[in-house]
Amino acid sequence: MNLNLTTATRIGLNLLALLGIAVAFWLGRSVFVPLTLAVLLASILYPAARWLNAHFLMPWFVACLSIIIMLVVSGGIVFASFAAAVPRLLEDLPKPNDITGQKEFYKRFAGQISKASPFDTSEILPDNPEQSGLFLYVQKVFNGESITNALIGMAGGGFELIAQGVLVLFIVLFLLLEGDMLANKVRAIFGMEGDTQTRVTGALREMAEAIRTYLVWRTIVNVGLALALGTFYHSIGLRQATLWALLTALFSYVPYLGTIAAGVPPVLDALLYVGAGPALLILVAYIGVVTFEGYIIVPWVMGRSMDLNATTVMLACLFWYLVWGTAGLFVAMPLMAAIKAVCMHVEGWNAWGHLMSSEPAKSMVAAHPGDPPHSPLENILGTGHAEGGVPAAGKKSDAPY
After folding, report:
1. Would the pLDDT of 246 be above 80?
2. At residue 369, does pLDDT exceed 50?
3. At what angle do helices 194-236 and 326-343 cross, to 10 degrees?
4. Distance between alpha carbon 380 and the CA centroid of its chain, in Å?
5. How far apart are CA 142 and CA 82, in angstroms?
6. Which of 165, 206, 216, 322 has the smallest number of CB atoms closer than 10 Å to its CB?
7. What is the mean pLDDT of residues 129-134?
8. Alpha carbon of 223 to those of 19, 89, 170, 220, 251: distances in Å?
9. H or E element: which one contains 378?
């Protein structure tokens, strides 16, 4: 049965569907988050397991298990690096009950800010700590009891993170072992016709390739950033150069926001312990490096697989953060790459894929000679016009995508 749906009705139904999906993802985040992480990891580890199986004649189970072990060892090295750097950072901070040390730390911080700023900062950061609302607030919040509770909370969160990691690794192992079988069953869900099978196979292949391209190259670029910036930080004389380099490698998985967050700590480190000049030098160098990485390296190595416009990227980060919290920020980009790949292979969804890309908008084409051109909204919603401007029931969109 065909329904005469207006454009407003279609928009309302699409928004309701999006809201329902978001609520379902939020309610089932304890299941969807580890499953999504496992699927992303399996998509980049599968070729490596295939390579071990083909070149070293390893049984498939042994090849998959070897890849998992390599992943655990790599993660352990990164975790150990963080664990070794954090205590050194805590040593530089004033102790919770050391009032004199806290005041000296504040005076050094306020003095460096005053030197670096072209404006008068005495009203915001007065020389006397007792007259600073910021100092009194921080002193009240970060007392001995608060620090103890925060450490207990961090310890509990760390154990939960380890448990989630073990669960994800088991799911990854099962996905690697049964990947071919699961892919065949997914194809069978959509029908056994030759054309349908070809479309589904192409969509799955393109989706896996987009995820793999992003995660592999993003990791390589992040490691390169960490090495380059870490070397530069050491040459400047930062006290926590290794920690800031590791944070850059981790936070750069989050577009825009993560890059900004990773650049703040080294500037503050230099401002407190090296000087205002080196802090400004680090700020300029960091902006130059991440700009070169974002506009030259990333488009060159990732190509069309990550051809997403900035609006789509920011909305994706906001949406997945709302649904899954911090984990959503890290999986937003590969998920959007996969969604865009699927849209480009499904008839009727191509306009959504084009909407997410950074390519110039294509010209609007009329459905038939003499008809008014379709608007971009009509192309996306798949609406057409019958005679007299009444929406045509069940009519396919003739959008030029």
Report:
1. yes
2. no
3. 140
4. 26
5. 22
6. 322
7. 79
8. 37, 22, 26, 5, 11
9. helix 376-381
